[in-house]
Amino acid sequence: MTSVTPDIDAEPRRVAVLGAGSWGTTFAKILADGGARVAIWARRPEVAREIMQSHRNSDYLPGINLPLGLAASSRLPEVLEGAQQVYLSVPSQSLRENLRIVRELIPDGVPVVSLMKGVERGTRYRMSEVIAQELGVGPERIAVVSGPNLALEIAKEQPTAAVVSSASLDTASAVALAARNPYFRSFVNTDVVGTEFGGVLKNLIAVAIGIVDGVGYGENTKASIITRGLVEMTDFAVAFGALPETMSGLAGLGDLIATCESPLSRNNTAGRLLGQGYDYHEVIAQMNQTAEGISSVAPILELASSMGVEMPIVSQVAEVLAGTLDPRDIAPHLTTDTDVPQGE
């Protein structure tokens, strides 16, 4: 286990959050309510202006009052100047291009924290890998946050927890101390691979749950898919070096339950629209925000194939997305290559 560089403050005075969508804004609120001085970057000036003037972000968190001390700007230098921790909450497929814009603005030696749950199309890299490549920073400066974190519930200060993971326990602990307040608690681990893949894979299972929900299937079907989905998640993550216990923790099972069961879940919503008969392009057009699960289906299946991991649930989601499988025929938990009974 590596130790973090000594210039990192465990309780930062100033924190930057890049991305003013629902999760970025919510996490900025978490940090501000934990005592940090937070500046958030909004791509659209009108969003930054509303946060500053009205302490609201009505496009993404309707009805939520934001902390009075939460600053916002559409100018990256203003947000990043003097930051002691930098949090990234942009769509996973645009992370690389955003990092190329900000790499010279991020202060030296500070932790860079991924709030994203996705895999880059084409390269199949996890978000922490993209950060390392584009910023040229070591793993001891990179952390990832995952868990059962539906933004609107947390913005309403309903109590929940998350896990912060880094190759350096010091870095994970510094981030966890910042991301802690009366309604939000952060735990730590050093299994970055498992924590990231848990956050990615549960989105794909949530799309499957949304599909069967949209079709009209009941709780037995959904419970079966969630249970077998956890098996798929674990098999996949362990094949890439994750610890199996991470998949039974907040980043795995915890996030899986929340994302599959809640109508607030973007991935569940996307799946439900697919199950109701909308095609891929119609679903994208109806979604106000990014459903990371849809973007991650193809790269996850490519990665699974490279390691010989079978993922029948994700494979059937891919078929529905491609229009080659009627949503009513989805039954991924029944898929097997043999009629011989298999061990659970």
TrEMBL record:
Binding site for NADPH: 22-23, 43-44, 60, 117, 151, 266, 292
Domain Glycerol-3-phosphate dehydrogenase NAD-dependent C-terminal: 191-330
Subcellular location: Cytoplasm
Role according to the record: Catalyzes the reduction of the glycolytic intermediate dihydroxyacetone phosphate (DHAP) to sn-glycerol 3-phosphate (G3P), the key precursor for phospholipid synthesis.
Domain (Glycerol-3-phosphate dehydrogenase NAD-dependent N-terminal): residue spans on this chain: 15-169
Xref: PROSITE patterns: NAD_G3PDH (PS00957)
Pfam families hit by this protein: NAD_Gly3P_dh_C (PF07479), NAD_Gly3P_dh_N (PF01210)
Name of the molecule in the record: Glycerol-3-phosphate dehydrogenase [NAD(P)+]
E.C. code: 1.1.1.94
Catalytic activity as recorded in UniProt: sn-glycerol 3-phosphate + NADP(+) = dihydroxyacetone phosphate + NADPH + H(+); sn-glycerol 3-phosphate + NAD(+) = dihydroxyacetone phosphate + NADH + H(+)
Metabolic or biological pathway: Membrane lipid metabolism; glycerophospholipid metabolism
Natural source organism: Protaetiibacter mangrovi
Enzyme's top EC category: oxidoreductase
